[in-house]
Write a structure and sequence with these properties.
With 163 residues, the chain is an alpha+beta fold. The protein is built from 3 helices and 12 strands, in the order ββββββββββββααα. InterPro entries: DUF402 (IPR007295), FomD-like_sf (IPR035930).
Length: 163
């Protein structure tokens, strides 16, 4: 397995990074997996992951999907972002804050982090175009999660469960 670093930029929060294994690349994008114990860094602390995750990224697509194996709240989170780009050591994207989330326990879909979105937009850390992109993509991804008809949605769970 190839180890790659995912850099997630939050405005104004700073840079977060996660060390993952690249497990596949296909027509849907690049698949990364972070088993329990994977290192991460936030501006205020460092740590290791308490749960397994799988991430799907693709250049040009304004979102990154995160399958989260949290036993208390197994979920699929979509990070709406500026399209991810490859870097020397992995991937990078700028988070646009809105996060459509599907909860496995009850099938509920919600869009989280409205407060962070408003703070970034009103604080001048996001352009009007980025704010509009975030809203349109978040609503589209929430609908995609409700329909649950994309094959890659199940593939993410399969990769998470095989970790």
């Amino acid at each position: 397995m190839t180890t790659v670093r995912l850099h997630k930029i939050k405005r104004p929060g700073g840079e977060y990074w996660f060390d993952f294994e690249q497990v596949a690349r296909d027509a849907d994008g690049t698949w990364l997996r972070g088993p329990v114990g994977s290192p991460w860094h936030a501006p205020h602390e460092d740590g290791t992951s308490a749960v397994s995750v799988v991430v799907l990224l693709a250049p040009g697509r304004p979102w990154a999907a995160w399958w989260v194996g949290d036993p208390a709240d197994r979920r699929l989170e979509i990070d709406v972002c500026l399209p991810p780009t490859t870097t020397e050591d992995g991937w990078r994207y700028v988070d646009l804050e809105l996060d459509p989330v599907w909860h496995a326990s009850d099938g509920r879909v919600e869009i989280e982090d409205e407060d962070e979105y408003e703070e970034s937009w009103r604080g001048g850390f996001m352009t009007a175009d980025d704010a509009k992109l975030a809203r349109v993509v978040a609503e589209g991804c929430a609908e995609l999660l409700r329909r649950d008809d994309e094959p890659w949605l199940r593939r993410g769970w399969d990769l998470l469960d095989s970790a």
